[in-house]
Amino acid sequence: MGLKLFNTLSRSIQEFAPLAPPKVGMYCCGPTVYDFAHIGNWRTFVFGDLVRRTLEFKGYAVTHVMNITDVEDKIIKHVRETKTSLREFTGKYEAAFLEDLKTLNCRLPHHTPRATEYISEIISLIEKLVQRGIAYKAADGSVYFSIEKYRGCGCTYGQLLKLNFDEMKAGERVKSDEYAKESVADFALWKARGPEDGDVFWPSPWGEGRPGWHIECSAMSTKILGPSFDLHLGGEDLIFPHHEDEIAQSEGATGKPFVKHWLHGAHLLVEGKKMSKSLGNFFTLRDLLAKGFIGREIRYLLLTAHYRETFNFTLEGLQGARAALARIDECLGKLREIGSLGVPPSGGSPVTPPEGGTPNLMAAFSAALDDDLNISAWGAVFEWVRETNRRLAENSLGATDAAFALAAWDKVDSVLGIGTKSGAEIPAEILALAEARTAAKKVKDFKRADAIRDELKAKGWVIEDTPKGPKLKKN
Ligand code: AMP
Ligand code: ZN
């Protein structure tokens, strides 16, 4: 069975069929760098990473592009308010974004183009649209995309969602980057310089100004991946107008079909509500780390919901993620202890365990992914953990079985990316306390050793003495 994904373009689940397999060109709309990315944004970016990892697991050679939107309406407003330069302002949030990507163990995209470094490509694209009569310069010096002219060429505006053109007012246009479906109108490709733009502007054939948000993605994606590519991804709020406008601009300029498969992730709510600073339910990734959670716990939780279902994020959910990961870690730890004595699978596929091995994790996991990234993949993981634990308890799992099971887990985790518990995830302060306790024990200062154990407990860590030395566990 091949990989099947829901395509917003056809509104149906389709066999994933890239244009030139095994190559896959994949574009994810990236962050608008005017603030730290919040947990809702991270749901979408982790979903993008899941898609990339799934494709690589299936043997595709993916070129993953994620743009950095470093000039648009909201950014300009913040630059004005903070009296900083555009680069200085966006640079801080771009660096934070790339750091957060690593914290969540997302594979780094192969290209992370900045809109401000593609101004000449953006201008060329707009020029093409003007030459083809689909874009025009308005009296204010801005250049707009003409929906009427585009439709007049036999092109469809409203490919990702149905639009009611009878409600459209002819000649209406919208300059701001964000607008609702109810105000379908000619949208700005190039915005003439206004006093509010400060010194954020570039020269162009239409005078000084700056690009609109939508044209940025068309220019960067087609420049790097070509006029037609396989996969385009973003949160569901981007379907209109952003992605609809991307299709119109790109197909209007090249005359070729833009993207074959469109994937959209549903939104994340916090405690059942839309995130907002006034409700106190607005979390950046950094807010959650400050509460003591770690990247893999957050990643795990975000991946436990199907990407097309609205997900309700709660702090209790994160506690649950911690407990679920502990179960996986414990099982893997035991397998490692046994497996280290066994013959690791070499050469051939570690996919099929030998007779008497643990249940076939890989087959069940892979089949679940094929079904539009079905979350029953987690069911396969926990079924495997249960069965493995049962076999471990009855001592019927040999060293070779364990080595095969671990090799299968590594393949599965190449998609999930939750990794394993590592020393690196134990805060330095906790490690220092554990070392101080060992030192105290060495000099037989048991009173001090016990006091340190209590201190660790108060900080949420349990220390266990094993034949191989002390082990730290999260409470
Ligand atoms: P932005 O930085 O605002 O351009 O958004 C980056 C990505 O996060 C886009 O793909 C958005 O669709 C997505 N996004 C924004 N809010 C949420 C949310 N509450 N849940 C899931 N994804 C979101
Ligand atoms: Zn975009």
Q: Can you give keywords for this protein?
A:
475 residues; alpha/beta; 5-stranded mixed beta sheet; 4-stranded parallel beta sheet; globular; binds adenosine monophosphate; binds zinc ion
Q: Give the proportion of residues in helices.
A: 40-55%
Poorly predicted tracts of residues: 342-352
Shape summary: globular
Structural class, please? alpha/beta
N- and C-termini, Cα separation: 42 Å
Strand content: 5-15%
Name the hetero compounds present. adenosine monophosphate, zinc ion
Number of helices: 15
Secondary structure tally: strands: 15
Radius of gyration: 26 Å
Mean pLDDT, nearest integer?
A: 91
Q: Report the biggest beta sheet as strand number plus sense, adding barrel if it closes.
A: 5 strands, mixed
| H/E element order | EEEHEHHHEEHEEEHEHEEHHEHHHHHHEE
Describe the protein in words.
The chain has helices at residues 39-57, 73-82, 86-103, 119-131, 147-152, 213-225, 239-254, 285-290, 295-303, 315-339, 361-370, 376-393, 399-416, 428-442, 446-458; strands at residues 4-7, 12-15, 23-28, 61-66, 135-137, 143-145, 173-174, 186-192, 209-211, 229-235, 259-265, 268-270, 311-313, 461-466, 469-474. The chain has 475 residues and is α/β, with parallel strands linked by helices. The strands form five sheets. Strands 5, 6, 7, 8 and 9 form a five-stranded mixed sheet that branches. A four-stranded parallel sheet has the order 4-3-10-11, with helices on both faces. Helix 14 (428-442) packs antiparallel against helix 15 (446-458). The longest helix has 25 residues, at 315-339. Zinc ion (ZN) binds next to loops.
